[in-house]
TrEMBL record:
<dbReference type="Pfam" id="PF07690">
    <property type="entry name" value="MFS_1"/>
</dbReference>
<keyword id="KW-0472">Membrane</keyword>
<keyword id="KW-0812">Transmembrane</keyword>
<feature type="transmembrane region" description="Helical">
    <location>
        <begin position="150"/>
        <end position="170"/>
    </location>
</feature>
<feature type="transmembrane region" description="Helical">
    <location>
        <begin position="208"/>
        <end position="228"/>
    </location>
</feature>
<feature type="transmembrane region" description="Helical">
    <location>
        <begin position="240"/>
        <end position="258"/>
    </location>
</feature>
<feature type="transmembrane region" description="Helical">
    <location>
        <begin position="307"/>
        <end position="326"/>
    </location>
</feature>
<keyword id="KW-0046">Antibiotic resistance</keyword>
<feature type="domain" description="Major facilitator superfamily (MFS) profile">
    <location>
        <begin position="22"/>
        <end position="471"/>
    </location>
</feature>
<feature type="transmembrane region" description="Helical">
    <location>
        <begin position="449"/>
        <end position="467"/>
    </location>
</feature>
<feature type="transmembrane region" description="Helical">
    <location>
        <begin position="57"/>
        <end position="76"/>
    </location>
</feature>
<keyword id="KW-1133">Transmembrane helix</keyword>
<feature type="transmembrane region" description="Helical">
    <location>
        <begin position="176"/>
        <end position="196"/>
    </location>
</feature>
<feature type="region of interest" description="Disordered">
    <location>
        <begin position="478"/>
        <end position="501"/>
    </location>
</feature>
<feature type="transmembrane region" description="Helical">
    <location>
        <begin position="117"/>
        <end position="138"/>
    </location>
</feature>
<feature type="compositionally biased region" description="Basic and acidic residues">
    <location>
        <begin position="485"/>
        <end position="501"/>
    </location>
</feature>
<feature type="transmembrane region" description="Helical">
    <location>
        <begin position="364"/>
        <end position="385"/>
    </location>
</feature>
Length: 501
């Protein structure tokens, strides 16, 4: 199944204005997702004060978005494959715009949290649909690598700009941070109606996997909810343990359903590829370590050093600027060295950046103690995130691009929620309590920073397993769902190996 633009030009030819316009619309949606996540964090104190929300209620302004996003990504990815990527993307983008408008106008905490959940839900459909539109519109190889490097750069740029814009807008009103995405989303929607090519529904699909969709979605929603609530409820509490047990049961049922379904939500044969598994685990450790680092760095800069929200945002700006400046180069780097090497170098840069941050004290100078970490993290983001997207989507049939995109985004969100909860629990366990000296508070942060570094180191070790010597190509027969007969490629120690499922 191909789109009218699938015959994308080679890397030596110029892209048509419509091709650039399509990429611009998709980048705008990814930019909005990242912008929205970063802006709300800075605005939380003002939101709580204006709406009279408690700390626990305020947490759900963030967690509501994560719950909708992380819980429904698998369904969103498969829906794009089955219902049409263009249709799913544009409809979800319209819902995102309406939810943004609602979030800026509400006068109560519950309505604000509901609007955040709806935004997360809509992003769970735009993210995999947008990524799969790119991977089916731009031919695999240099041209797709270039498109994906630009696409993922927009996410990093949106996140960095969100921090700065929120610091500026919150000075006037926190409602502006909620309203800003609405007109951008509407503009992208109008352009998308004209530019995004029509995509057919999956040809010859054998019905819809309703049982798999229900169990998979409920399992992801419960997993994200349990992880988000675990620090407050207690990791060893009966509620948390029973929730994790229920997740395990649901996932077991889900796997059994997928193995028997003629049209599975996730074709499990995809996960028999070593490169695919490395991409998913890499996404979890990469985003989980970064979100956790940002959380601790924000506490350090604002709570201990007394920096303003805007100053803190500007401290992170070099990382985003480095990603933006390198956007046009990453694709060619991947073409030359391959995703395994680029990902490994990026993770090594991230580990080095986190390790350097362990030197901080109460009198650290930005240029000497903080800026090197930001630059190393920026280099890591520029190298790793586009490469993970390329590695996860290469060699996958067009009719499964949405599924793989949803799976990758799920790994990102679950990794972020899981590792942030773990790091928060570590810091909370060592908290000195009220009236503690600044030195004692800083000491309570250090174990969390060590855990962040260890998470990134785990990602580095995972990526290094893809650097083994090349093996000759071979054909591997993999038993999959009944009646399925399709070819995919599998990377075994850096070699592309056809896999039949």
């Amino acid at each position: 199944m191909t789109s009218p633009l699938t015959s994308a030009p080679s890397s030596q030819e110029r892209w048509s204005p419509r091709l650039w316009g399509t990429l611009l619309v998709l980048c705008a949606a990814m930019f909005l997702d990242a912008l929205d996540v970063s802006m709300v964090g800075v605005a939380l104190p003002s939101i709580g004060s204006d709406l009279g929300l408690t700390t626990s209620a305020l947490q759900w302004v963030v967690s509501g978005y994560i719950l909708g996003y992380g819980g429904l990504l698998l369904l969103g990815g498969r829906a794009a494959d089955l219902l049409g990527r263009r249709r799913v993307f544009l409809f979800a983008l319209g819902v995102f715009a309406l939810a943004s408008l609602l979030g800026g106008l509400v006068a109560s905490g519950p309505l604000l949290i509901a609007s955040r959940f709806i935004k997360g839900l809509s992003a769970a459909f735009t993210a995999p649909a947008g990524l799969s539109i790119i991977t089916t519109t731009f031919a695999e190889g240099p041209v797709r690598n270039r498109a994906l490097s630009i696409y993922t750069t927009c996410a990093a740029t949106g996140f960095s700009m969100g921090l700065v814009l929120s610091g500026l807008l919150t000075e006037a009103s926190w409602r502006l941070t909620m309203l800003l995405p609405a007109p951008i989303a509407v503009a992208a929607l109008l352009l998308g109606l004209r530019l995004i090519p029509h995509s057919a529904k999956e040809e010859g699909h054998r019905g819809y996997d309703v049982p798999g969709a229900v169990t998979g979605t409920v399992a992801m929603l419960l997993l994200v909810f349990t992880v988000v609530q675990a620090p407050d409820a207690g990791w060893g509490s009966a509620r948390t343990l029973l929730s994790f047990l229920a997740v395990a049961v649901l996932l077991t049922v889900f796997v059994r359903i997928e193995r028997r379904s003629p049209a599975p939500l996730i074709r499990l044969g995809v996960l028999r590829s070593g490169s695919q598994i490395r991409a998913q685990l890499g996404a979890m450790t990469f985003f989980g370590s970064y979100v956790s680092f940002q959380f601790l760095a924000t506490l350090y800069l604002q709570s201990l050093l007394g920096w303003s929200a805007l100053s803190m945002a500007l401290a992170f700006l070099p990382a985003g600027a480095l990603v933006a400046l390198s956007s046009t180069k990453v694709g060619s780097v991947v073409d030359r060295f391959g995703t395994p090497r680029v990902i490994a170098v990026g993770f090594a840069s991230m580990v080095a950046g986190y390790a350097l941050f362990l030197r901080i004290d109460l009198h650290s100078a930005y240029a000497a103690a903080i800026l090197p970490t930001m630059l190393l993290i920026g280099a890591a983001c520029a190298l790793v995130f586009p490469s993970l997207n390329i590695q996860a989507t290469n060699g996958v049939d067009d009719d499964e691009q949405g599924m793989v995109s949803g799976l990758l985004n799920t790994s990102v969100q679950v990794g972020g929620a899981l590792f942030l909860a773990v790091v928060t629990a570590v810091v909370t366990a060592g908290s000195p309590g009220e009236g503690a000296t600044p030195d004692a508070v800083l000491d309570s942060y250090r174990p969390g920073l060590m855990v962040v570094t260890a998470i990134a180191a785990a990602g580095l070790l995972i990526s290094l397993t893809g650097l083994r010597g090349r093996r000759p190509q071979q054909t591997l027969v993999v038993t999959g769902s009944p009646g399925a007969a399709r070819e995919e490629t599998r990377e075994t120690a850096g070699a592309r190996v056809p896999v039949r499922d």
